[in-house]
Write a structure and sequence with these properties.
The complex is a heterodimer of chains A (82) and B (236). Chain A has a single domain, classed as Phosphoribosylformylglycinamidine synthase subunit PurS (Mth169, Chain: A), CATH 3.30.1280. Chain A is 34% helix and 30% strand. Chain A has 2 helices and 3 strands, in the order βαβαβ. Chain A is α+β, with helices and mostly antiparallel strands and 82 residues long. Chain B has one domain (2-235): Class I glutamine amidotransferase (GATase) domain (Rossmann fold). Helix content of chain B is 22%, strand content 25%. In chain B, the strands form 2 sheets. A 9-stranded mixed sheet of chain B has the order 2-1-3-4-11-10-9-6-7, sandwiched between helices. In chain B, strands 5-8 form a two-stranded antiparallel sheet. In chain B, α1 links the parallel β1 (2-7) and β2 (28-33). Chain B is globular, with a radius of gyration of 16 Å. Classes of the chains: A alpha+beta (82), B alpha/beta (236). At the A-B interface, α1 of A face loops of B.
Chain lengths: 82, 236
């Protein structure tokens, strides 16, 4: 079994009002020096019986096709076995 | 004319569209469930507003892979007319039938009110009944309506006259104050380069009878009917 942890974030240059609101809230709470906050998505995809290479290939396709929208989002993922 | 209105699980404006087309304009308008694989003899397809597939993941992201969408894509390639309203616009962008994407409103609030949009291009099958620069009063009803495209795409849209509607004041000025959701260049609606696919965030079907406070949305549907009469067999 392989678990893929997929991180999807808005591209640099795409305004993230939610992140900006969180940054403002952190400032209000007294956390100084927070330059920027970006809010994204975190998904865990568990795959059955595939090699690491195959899992990497498949998850990359999943991201390109559905999990992320390349017009507005970047993605990256990590694989964990067991 | 024969209209086909695509219904996804979670669509909720299909009956409003059907009402306007049938009761107000006297056209035929069939509802098409999203599992349909063939689309035959329609003169125009409408992707209505709502929350297709719950808007899970991203608006339109799952709907874009509904079985009917393959046929919708073929229909677009053949030059058929497609109108995407609100959620329908989001689905068309996710499907790549229109460029760009729709992001969460800058205010982070769901916005439901009447706005004004200025008609930027009347040389499309969807806007022939409008005057150039005409200001329409139409309602918006969305959480993700902030139009975004990368700078190069945006430049092309502007250059090629693909921006069809911009948020404006009642006097027709495209000010920041008239922009309800933070859309780039006040964009409220765009079409593809071929001009047979149009998407817009406002709901013209909710502004098609004086009882509802505005009839300017009717101009879109009247334009389509007019174009359909002129072009007929080609769009089949």
């Amino acid at each position: 079994m392989i678990r893929a942890k997929v991180y999807v974030t808005l591209k640099k240059g795409v305004l993230d009002p939610q992140g900006e609101t969180v940054r403002g809230a952190l400032e209000t709470l007294g956390f100084a020096g927070v330059k920027d906050v970006r809010v994204g998505k975190f998904m865990v995809v568990t795959l059955n019986e595939v090699s690491r290479e195959e899992a990497s290939r498949r998850v990359d396709q999943m991201c390109k096709k559905l999990l992320a929208n390349p017009v507005i989002e970047d993605y990256r993922f990590e694989l964990e076995e067991g | 004319m024969r209209f086909g209105i695509i219904v996804f699980p979670g669509s909720n404006c299909e009956l409003d569209c059907q009402w306007v087309l049938e009761k107000v304009l006297g056209q035929q308008a069939d509802l098409i469930w999203h599992t349909e694989k063939e689309l035959k003899d329609y003169d125009c397809l409408i992707l209505p507003g709502g929350f297709a597939h719950g808007d899970y993941l991203r608006t339109g992201a799952i709907a874009r892979f509904s079985p009917v969408m393959k046929a919708v894509e073929r229909y677009a390639e053949d030059g058929g007319l497609i109108l995407g309203i609100c959620n329908g616009f989001q689905v068309l962008c996710e499907a790549g039938l229109l460029p760009g994407a729709l992001l969460r409103n800058t205010s982070l609030a769901f916005i439901c009110r009447h706005v004004h949009v200025r008609v930027e291009n009347t040389a499309t099958p969807f806007t022939t009944a409008c005057r150039p620069g005409q200001v329409l009063r139409v309602p918006i009803n969305h959480n993700e309506g902030r139009y975004y495209a990368d700078p190069e795409t945006l430049r092309q849209l502007n250059e090629k006259g693909q921006v069809i509607f911009r948020y404006a004041t009642a006097g027709g000025e495209t000010t920041d104050g008239a922009n309800p959701n933070g859309s780039l260049d006040n964009i409220a609606g765009i079409c593809n380069e071929r001009r047979n696919v149009l998407g817009l965030m406002p709901h013209p079907e909710r502004a098609a009878e004086s009882l509802l406070g505005s009839t300017s949305g009717l101009l879109l549907f009247e334009s389509i009917v007019r174009s359909g009469r002129a072009a007929s067999p080609m769009f089949r």
